[in-house]
């Protein structure tokens, strides 16, 4: 009886050690060090995360790009005036955008290297970035191509990552 208990506990220990190393039911993940997500330690990395959050329609990653005090500024064509909203409204609006289109493609253009490589802490930086945004509707629905400029103010607090404080949209339809 004792021999069976020892043998069973040894088999159990071996099985646990192998199961932590190999799971035959797990999907192949590829190289885990080659993630599309960055630590946003430079402005370029922040913009990569922003772009990827749109392209993968990932609202949680998008939220991580925005500071708690985030403000989105836009021109209201109906009211013919500049308007703005805060982070909560922006997250709801962007979540709606993500759920209403089958595919989204955001591309940044002509971002100067000194902006892309900027990594200073406790310093806000304001810059313009040109972009194209393509929105593809479900099952052959409408497709929209937007071109424009975004005026961003970003900041990285000491020991943290870059986040967007303000985004002023200058979209050309």
Number of strands: 6
- Biggest beta sheet attributes: 6 strands, mixed
Terminal residue distance: 80 Å
Strand content: 35-45%
Q: How many alpha or pi helices?
A: 5
Overall structural class, as computed from helix and strand content, comes to alpha+beta
Radius of gyration: 23 Å
What count of structural domains? Answer: 1
Mean pLDDT: 85
Q: Given this structure, which CATH class is correct?
A: Alpha Beta
Biggest sheet: strands side by side, in what order? 2-1-6-5-4-3
CATH architecture: Roll
H-E string: HHHEEHEHEEE
Q: Give helix % range.
A: 25-40%
Spans where pLDDT lies below 50 across 5 or more residues: 1-20
Shape: globular
If you consult CATH, what is the topology? Nuclear Transport Factor 2, Chain: A
Describe this structure as you would to a colleague.
The protein has 173 residues and is an alpha+beta fold. Helix content is 32%, strand content 36%. The protein has five helices and six strands. The chain has a six-stranded mixed sheet. Helix 2 (43-55) runs antiparallel to helix 3 (59-65). Mean pLDDT is 85; it is low at 1-20. This is Lipoprotein. It comes from candidate division LCP-89 bacterium B3_LCP. Residues 1-22 form the signal peptide.
């Amino acid at each position: 009886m004792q021999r069976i208990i020892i043998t069973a506990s040894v088999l159990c220990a071996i099985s646990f050690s192998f199961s932590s190393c190999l799971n035959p039911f797990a999907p192949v993940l590829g190289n885990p060090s080659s993630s599309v997500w960055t630590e946003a330690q430079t402005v370029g990395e922040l913009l990569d995360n922003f772009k990827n959050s749109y392209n993968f329609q990932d609202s949680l990653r998008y939220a991580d790009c925005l500071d708690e005090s985030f403000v989105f500024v836009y021109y209201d064509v109906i009211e013919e005036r500049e308007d703005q909203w805060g982070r909560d409204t922006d997250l709801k609006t962007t979540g709606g955008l993500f759920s209403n289109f089958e595919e989204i493609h955001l591309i940044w253009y002509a971002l100067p290297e000194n902006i892309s490589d900027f990594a200073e802490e406790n310093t806000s930086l304001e810059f313009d970035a040109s972009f194209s945004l393509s929105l593809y509707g479900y099952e052959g629905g409408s497709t929209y191509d937007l071109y424009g400029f975004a005026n961003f103010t970003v900041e990285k607090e000491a020991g943290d990552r870059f986040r967007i404080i303000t985004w002023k949209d200058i979209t050309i339809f």
